[in-house]
Write a structure and sequence with these properties.
alpha/beta; UDP-galactose 4-epimerase, domain 1; six-stranded parallel sheet; about 20% strand; globular
Length: about 290
């Protein structure tokens, strides 16, 4: 039985990855901080993971925790202190512990196709990418577009009260949407694949704003229209104003960060096709099942 590390397993996506990896027959060592609440540790044990308390500032202990594993999966989420500093400590520990492979915490639109300075959180991941690409370890980044689950609240595209789908720029620009469970299942499979490539592109669905409106009409039995909120340039100006008025620099997802993500989705430059969906067996969740949940 292969052993993998999951860092960030007490988080939403990390917990799903740990559960999916156990379901695929892996032994999951879930790194948790010594101060982690007992309830969260018990929750990990209940899904079959092995909670491993470790101080991330103790390089020797962290490297010891990474011994005997085939892959270290990072589902850490945060700002520079986490994505750059803590994730680098994890990378160093993976190297010191002899792990062969590392999956960084990307799980997003393929930011490689986008210019720097347009999304703070992508810039942090891009900076970590330069670090891992110079390290003697095999890395795999998984690009899944946006999380489809967010259509039911956090992402304001579907305006159910007025039966409209909000968009900026072009209503026919396609973007990728993938549920968190599907991302987790795919990540677990990639973690157990010794031949996984450097980059993997997945999409549970590839849709445009126009496609979403048509789907909502089918799902609800009521016609949905489109609501153009403005051009991409207008959205970019709004991002700038919001960032100046409400900087919230210590927050991972302030309002302007979410707006940056929407800009990236409608930008049209990031690949969205399900290029690598067939590499592993995943029961992809139909988008209609996601939007029916409300």
């Amino acid at each position: 039985m292969d052993t993998i590390i999951v860092a960030g397993a007490t988080g939403d996506l990390g917990g799903r990855i740990a559960k999916a990896a156990v379901a695929r027959g892996a032994k999951v060592r879930a790194l948790v901080r010594p101060s982690t609440a007992a309830g969260r540790i018990a929750a990990l044990a209940s899904i079959g993971a092995d909670p491993c308390p470790v101080d991330f500032d103790d390089a020797q202990a962290l490297a010891h925790a990474c011994r005997g594993v085939v892959c270290v999966v990072s589902a850490l989420n945060g700002l520079g202190e986490t994505i750059l500093d803590t994730q680098t400590k994890l990378l160093d520990a993976a190297l010191g512990g002899g792990a062969a492979r590392f999956i960084p915490s990307d799980f997003s639109i393929d930011y490689r196709a986008l210019p720097t300075g347009k999304n703070r959180n992508f810039d942090l991941r891009r900076a970590f990418r330069t670090r891992i690409d110079t390290a003697p370890i095999l890395a795999t980044s998984i690009f899944n577009g946006a999380f489809a689950d967010m259509l039911n609240g956090q992402m304001p595209l579907i305006q159910r009260r007025v039966r409209r789908v909000l968009y900026w720029g072009d209503a026919d620009v396609k973007f990728a949407l993938t549920t968190k469970d599907d991302v987790a299942a795919y990540t677990a499979a990639a973690a157990l694949d010794p031949a996984a490539p450097r980059n993997l592109q997945i999409a549970g669905a590839e849709v445009s704003a126009r496609d979403l409106a048509a789907l909502m009409g089918e799902v609800t039995g009521k016609p949905y229209g489109l609501l153009r909120a403005g051009s991409l340039g207008a959205l970019e100006r709004m991002i700038g104003v919001t960032r100046r008025l409400f900087p919230a620099r210590d927050q991972v997802f302030p309002a302007w960060q979410g707006m940056q993500y929407l800009h990236n989705m409608f930008d049209g430059r990031a690949p969205s096709g399900p290029v690598d969906n067939a590499r592993y067996e995943v029961a992809w969740t139909p988008l209609r099942n996601v939007v029916k949940e409300q």
